[in-house]
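stuck on this fold:
=====
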Amino acid sequence: MYTDATAAAIARARQHGVGDLLHRTARRYPDKLAVVFGDQRFTYAEFDAAVNRCGRALAERGLAKGDRLALLSHNCWQFAVLVFATARLGVVLVPVNFMLGADEIAYILTHSGAAGMVAESALRPTADQALAKAGIEGGIRGAIGPAQEGWEDVDAWWREGDDSPIDIAVADDDPLRLMYTSGTESRPKGVLLSSRSLISQYVSCIVDGGMTVDDVELHSLPMYHCAQLDCFFSVDVYLGATSIILPAPDPATMLATIHRERVTKLFCPPTVWISLLRHPDFDRTDLSSLRKGYYGASPMPVEVLRELQRRLPDVRLWNFYGQTEMAPLATILRPDEQLAHLGSAGRACLNVETTLVDGFGEPVPPGQVGEIVHRSPHAALGYYNDEEKTAEAFAGGWFHSGDLGVMTEDGYLSVVDRKKDMIKTGGENVASREVEEAVYELDGVAEVAVFGISHPHWIEAVTAVVVPRADSTLTAEDVHAHVKERLAGFKRPKFVVLADALPKNPSGKILKRDLRATYAHLAAEE
């Protein structure tokens, strides 16, 4: 229809990628406060200029469209810059969970084929070990914080140099983010997200989540999670709202920051909301600016929901349900639905179609349990370098969540169990099989089953029931010490029980539902 040159020109004129969002917001609101981190305060014009400088610095160091860059850091101003600088280049950002150990990070570096790494200086020893284990000797090594041997201080990347706009063609479905998520397998899967996935999800958040340009939002949950990063921070940048970034969800700091910055909007998993409610500063801090509250990652206990509504009566609450592969939002329970649909994950959001299917992929009627599946432009491009798991996840032209649910006739979804054995503890996903495999490495273990039990603080607590071998002197303390050397803290069992046998069905499958019921008392006795 057109020459290649004309087609390319049209494509560039129509480009609407994540890397374009900040620039357009900066054109609309150049002098508006964009990001606050500690004593640093940046307008949108300053944020945009920093991103351009950083992008050019990365390009000068050899990064090009399609390359992968790992990022290991707590929340900070630099994290925010790298999110948009990589997007402008078409470089695929690989945010890494800072709670992982060197072996776990080395797997991500190797699997992603990372061309380099940016790491917070405090995490550099772990980063060095991971790079060594992955056999990576060259490439970019940027330190957030003081420069150290072999690591370049990256602050110069965005404080100096050419800040003119970067003009690189990045198509809607070019990959921009590679998020590693725990699955039922012993190794995490790399979820590929594109601008189309992310921006369509931003629109759903804005419309159904009641988000506006006037929001002042506190971001304290880890930005390596797409919940904080893509349901909230990046949406604020898209709109032109103001973001206050904290390195961690410390309750005292959060409460003081809400008061000082007149924060209007806050996302927390239930564990953090509970921590805020229980903190002695809660009732003596002026929180009157808060108007919007969001929760997700795990269900909100009903009594906590009622307490929030009682103690923060002017705050409207939303429940966001989804997963990384949905960028991550899928369904929303809105403020006026909270008490009428207690425990529900709500209904499909603006750009999502959600239904339930049986084991053959056929729809199930309202009131019956089925697997939760979605169709949406939110959906990921697939799993990086994993055709088999991608084909399985997208069977029949739907994304299969792995969660089981029940849906009412009017579309309200309740998540009742996990088809894939996942534990959600403190807002983190833990694959039971990964923990089980770590425990099996310990001499004296005959069998082990790992599962989650309800917990008043963690929502779910990782629990292991271990059957020792007949001739073993294995103790629970031995198991705790063993996993401490092999797993990140949030993955380690909070409870270890020794047993003579595990309950099984006639086909030999371990009955984890029975185990959850049998050991539900552990949290109460803690």
Remarks:
- DSSP finds 17 helices and 26 strands in the chain.
- The chain has a mean pLDDT of 93.
- Residues 108 and 225 are 15 Å apart (CA to CA).
